[in-house]
Amino acid sequence: MGLRIHFVFDPMGWCCISMVFFVWLYNSFFIPKLVLLPHFDEGHIPAALVISYYLASILCVTSLVRASVADPGKLAPNPHIPHTEREQWELCSKCNLMRPKRSHHCSRCGHCVRKMDHHCPWINNCVGEDNHWLFLQLCFYTQVLSMFTLVLDFCQYYYFQPLTRVNEELLLFRHELALLRISAFMGLLMFAGISGLFYTQITGILTDMTTIEKMSHYYDETSRLRKPWQQTFAEVFGTRWKILWFFPFRKRQPLQVLYDFPSHL
């Protein structure tokens, strides 16, 4: 399920995800080139710091790629509905297909998605049951990489020792201040924007409500019955092993629900 490739033909989405890739590529190239590697060569910083930055960068772009091309939970045209679950399915008024409750029809993608949270143009894909965990990882590692970048930009001028073997004739080092200011601006912008989104996603998981459900202002007395937070996160990530919640290099398996809780829709 987690390995199915899913592409959305949306020019605006392609433009948005290209901007995200550009920010990642810019910081992943200039920060090591201007800060990490020169200071490592002169013995000012340990190798662990360089490895940590590259690791955060790899985890960030892996989550981005996988979240953008993963099937979010698109429903098949003629889904097989088990007899015992027919009461949990309903007819979509837009595509006239049966779908399980808590699914939603995405007008941009043109199909229904299981437990759809929202359509995100920054990954050019819907965020649904099958790729929600990757979107959470993307938000988390984007914050880590952005904060890492901001700290390194600050340390370059206020903490690190001056470099002695920098070739001032190189174009990069002659424009170092401008390049790092751009990096800091993009890092601050990404960190501020993603932090709010990540907080919204976490609160949604804790309350077991999608963004669409919260925006629809749906309230019910039964919604007061909440799942334990470990259960809701385990269902999103497809595993109860908490260490695996941070690894995008795996395939998600639907977690068997042990308890029957009322749905919001």
TrEMBL record:
Catalytic activity: L-cysteinyl-[protein] + hexadecanoyl-CoA = S-hexadecanoyl-L-cysteinyl-[protein] + CoA
Entry's transmembrane regions: 12-31, 43-65, 138-159, 179-199
Manganese recorded as keyword: no
UniProt cross-references to InterPro entries, sorted A to Z: Palmitoyltrfase_DHHC (IPR001594), PFA4/ZDH16/20/ERF2-like (IPR039859)
EC id: 2.3.1.225
Main subcellular localisation: membrane
GO cellular component annotations of the record: endoplasmic reticulum; Golgi apparatus; membrane
Domain Palmitoyltransferase DHHC: 87-216
MF (Gene Ontology): protein-cysteine S-palmitoyltransferase activity
Keyword Hydrolase listed: no
Membrane topology, record value: Multi-pass membrane protein
GO BP term, pick one: protein targeting to membrane
Localisation per UniProt entry: Membrane
Domain writeup: The DHHC domain is required for palmitoyltransferase activity.
Assigned protein family: Belongs to the DHHC palmitoyltransferase family.
Protein name in UniProt: Palmitoyltransferase
Species assigned in the record: Lepisosteus oculatus
